[in-house]
Amino acid sequence: MVRGLDHLVVAVKDLEKAGQAYSELGFTVTPENRHPWGTANRLVQLDRFFIELLSVAEPEKISETSGNAFSFGAFNRDFLKAREGASMLVLDSTGAEKDRSDFQRAGLHLYDPFSFERTAHLADGSTAQVAFDLTLVGDDLSPGIGYFTCHNKFPENFWKPAFQSHANGACSVGAIYMIAADPSDHHEFLGGFTGQREMRATSLGLELETARGDIRVLTPYAYQALVGAEAASSVTGDLPQIAALEIACQGLDQKKIVPAEQLFGLTLILTPAG
Known about the structure:
The protein is of the alpha+beta class. The chain has 2 domains: 5-163, 2,3-Dihydroxybiphenyl 1,2-Dioxygenase, domain 1 (Roll); 170-272, Immunoglobulin-like (Sandwich). Helix content is 20%, strand content 37%. Strands 1, 2, 3, 4, 5, 6, 7, 8 and 9 form a 9-stranded mixed sheet that branches. A hairpin with a 4-residue loop joins strand 2 and strand 3 (39-45). The longest helix is centred in the N-terminal third of the chain and has 11 residues, at 72-82.
């Protein structure tokens, strides 16, 4: 089974300003929600994919990673000490038990199972319960990126048409772009994580087609050729890293690039839909 892109966690220092920046680009951004472990988020929902803008709201509630118990809050807190930007790549899931079994067979490093519930604040001011099972894995070759699958237990309470309607026509995820010194180093982990063993490798990078959007791992040279020198110059921090997100937009005439320095560490590539 090939998994699809579910969401991208984008760690930011100021959640309100980040939400405002996305709103000014024509995205609908959800109200703030808080996690019991000290982080807060606002979301940009597309067609079964979303951007999770995440900040540390209550640092005193964050627990540390201990042994095989992964701390979501501590990972993003420590990420923000170095920079803002995309901290975690998340794939969809039909069930945590199957994910764990698949990842064990692939030889991936599994963390302890993790589940949680929270109250979601909806556009009309009402609330609904949502719950998720996370299956977290680690990759020694990309320690600065968090990876997990997300099993959404109550999708009917999570996905809302009002949140998926955007003034800029944004409708679906096209690709997530990573930068690595040697993209081929990451084919084994990404193949096991996505379930996609067929991939295209060239001197410029690695391309995997998931069930929803692509994952493309590029060399720094290839990334600059894709987004241009200005946007490429916004890249800071160690490699490998998640550098850009491509989103298809209805009604857009030509590709538009919003560089990371203008958008809290993540470059957006907006492309015409269809």
